[in-house]
Amino acid sequence: MDNLTVLQAKRYGIYSCSSDSTLVYAAQLMVQEDVSGLVVVDQDEYLAGIITRTDLLRAFQTTPAWRNLKVSDYMNTQVVTVTPHDHLEHVASLLIAHQIHRVVIVEVEGGKKRPIGVISDADIVFHMTRTF
Q1: What is the pTM of this model?
Q2: In terms of C-beta density within 10 A (0-12 exposed, 13-18 middle, 19 or more buried), how is residue 22 classed?
Q3: Which of 69, 100, 119, 131 is the most exposed place for a label (fewest CB within 10 A)?
């Protein structure tokens, strides 16, 4: 696992929505795909943010009309990202330091970040079991 890059380690595809999507759409997509977060992209498919189940719970608790609100109302725009060539140890350090469960793998194109994958704490733990 010492030299495994995030691109080699990621196990699942990337699930995304636009910032204009409704929260109920995001919730339905998370349930359908059995994921705990979605990458939020702009109209050109560049990274705009991330929305998680915790964000949805926060909306549910604070607003009775949460279903019709936009993802942009609750998404986090301060997304922790890594490159395809970063190693799992680096990702683990970021997850712990930021107290988060996933990072977005990006390629930088003209100064903008294009999401190409997600790697989570579950992915790292999966690979930890494969290294003995």
Answers
A1: 0.90
A2: middle
A3: 131
